[in-house]
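Hi everyone, sorry if this is the wrong subforum. Our group has a chain we'd like a structural model of before ordering constructs, and none of us has done structure prediction before. Sequence below.
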Amino acid sequence: MSITIRRATEDDAPALSRICLLTADAGTSAEHLHDYGELPGLAYAVPYVKLPTTWGFVMVDDASSEVVGYIVGSKDTRAYEKYAAEHWWPKLVEKYPPSLAKKPDDERYMKLFANMHTAPDANIALAAAHLHIDILDAYQGRGWGRRLITTAIEYLKGENVEGAGVWLGMDPRNVKARAFYERLGFKRVEGADENQYGIKFADYKG
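Answer:
Right subforum, don't worry. Here is the predicted structure as tokens:
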């Protein structure tokens, strides 16, 4: 299997949206949970190729030229949250009123757009940067997640990130993901809930 990792671009938005949906149910497909399959990606993937302070990398299967995984994030979470609150979420609130929803998960995302959560202060105290990572099931367990995170951390090291680290929030049901992050040296963020994990660049075990 030959894989290329490259910078993500706005043209990758449809692929990011698809991968996000196919991994949105604690690492498995959430297709059956949505009539509006674009909603998870609009919350957690697509903004990172559209908004300021963001960065991203994608995995491309060289045989098919298909994007099969990604790692995305922001170098300055508070600036990202502010810009998204003014320019991204309001458009989605208008486009996806909860009255459209027939499935609970669609309704949950539609309500989330109107009241998007923000990072705990404890996370920001650790580092300004955050990330999201998703890889299609067929490509997991082959070391690509580690390579994506290594690529992201090497990039962020050159971006003068406040706190010289990065953090993420994880689905508590995804035990495999938790074990993966812990192997790389990520630890629970002190002062935040148990699903917030972070790492200083100097402590990364990639």
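For your construct planning: Residues 144-157 form the longest helix (14 residues). The longest strand covers residues 66-74.
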